[in-house]
Amino acid sequence: MPDPNLMKTLEGRATALRRHLLTMASNGQLIHLGGSMSIADLMAALFFDFLDVEGKKGPKDHFILSKGHCVHTMHACLAELGKIEASEFTKLAQMGSRLAGHPSLKAPLVEFATGSLGHGLSVGIGIAMAEKLNGSRSKTVVLMGDGELQEGSVWEAALCAPKFGLENLLAIVDSNRFQANAPVADILPIEPLEDKWRSFSWNTHVIDGHEMGSILGVLEEFPAKKGPTVIIANTVKGKGVPGVEGTPRAHFTSLEDHEVQEALKGLEVESC
Question: What CATH number has the domain spanning 4-271?
Answer without folding.
Answer: 3.40.50.970
